[in-house]
Amino acid sequence: MRQNRATVLVGERVVLVPYRKQHVSKYHEWMQDASLQQLTGSEPLTLAEEYEMQQSWRNDEDKLTFIVLARDRDVKQDDLAALLSRSPMAGDVNVFFNQVYDDDDEDTVPLTYGEMEVMIAEPTFRRKGLADEALRMLMYYITTAPTPTPDTTPAEAQVLPIPPTRLMVRIE
């Protein structure tokens, strides 16, 4: 989603950044792992297909993706350049927006629900609270009014923020 293209969220353990071209090769490397493919329900892609997917996700109005960086705690929070360069990629966190219509009333405006998911792909960063913090930060971001950007489309402006009661989880 273009709405988060310049958004960086800094937490205690993680830094969330938009999924950009510079992340694709590492992400592609992760997604070659058969166990991650099975856990995420993903099919292997070529590197060229992964670059296409990154562009698609960046421009798609019904999903929002952040790369999860494992925050380098030796870097001060206000030194964003150092945080971004010294915090390694650990995974990603996403929300998929689904519009649900009331079947009984065709004239109603659809309700937008958010389905969230998180993946900590790097084994060394698992079981350290990164996924928990990344999900909490994303929940806060999507349920509060983000600052609109000049290129925010009308559809994006209608999606965010969404009420916390419209967040859902799917457990498989």
From TrEMBL:
The keyword Transferase is assigned to this record: yes
SUPFAM superfamilies (alphabetical): Acyl-CoA N-acyltransferases (Nat)
Domain N-acetyltransferase: 13-144
InterPro entries named in the record: Acyl_CoA_acyltransferase, GNAT_dom, NAT9-like
UniProt keyword list: Acyltransferase, Transferase
Gene3D superfamilies documented for this protein: 3.40.630.30
Signal sequence interval, chain numbering: none
GO molecular function: N-acetyltransferase activity
Name of one Pfam family that matches: Acetyltransf_3
The family this protein is said to belong to: Belongs to the acetyltransferase family. GNAT subfamily.
PANTHER family: ALPHA_BETA-TUBULIN-N-ACETYLTRANSFERASE 9, N-ACETYLTRANSFERASE 9
Name of the molecule in the record: N-acetyltransferase domain-containing protein
Species lineage: Eukaryota, Fungi, Dikarya, Basidiomycota, Ustilaginomycotina
